[in-house]
Fold this sequence. Notes:
By secondary structure, this protein is α+β, with helices and mostly antiparallel strands. The protein has helices at about 50-65, 130-150; strands spanning about 10-20, 25-30, 40, 45, 65-80, 90-105, 110-120. Strands 1, 2, 3, 4, 5, 6 and 7 form a 7-stranded mixed sheet that branches.
Amino acid sequence: MTTDRLYPSRPFLAASVAVFRDGRVLLAARGKPPGEDLFSLPGGQVETGETLAEAALRELHEEVGVEAKLIGLIAPVEFIERDAEGRIKHHVVIAAHAARWVSGEPRTGPEAKEIRWVTERDIVGLPMTQGLAAILEQAFALEQRDLEQRDSAR
Length: 154
């Protein structure tokens, strides 16, 4: 995270993506603060002129080398961190998406220390970023609805 994102004068906009493959979702342990070593969804800052969906897919590819097809927007997540004096140290609004894996085997890197494909049961007890459990619950439900719609269309 660059210093211009510390003690911001406004919130930053980001996008993330819960990628599903064979009933499992891709999680990455963050390689940088905030939330270093905590599992989260791949994602990052939205660039000027980029849609939320484009940002989510770009960040997914840049961080872990995976290509996916979006199946829907899950929800916004607000990350606000205050310092010991109560000042806002970080403020990010993240648009979380759900997607289906298309190609690429996930790889670690500077932003993703560890990668796991996990089932809904596997997430219990994992050290995760704040609010991720609720987002994953919604993501698994969205993925299930998408599967049912695809099956009924056949």
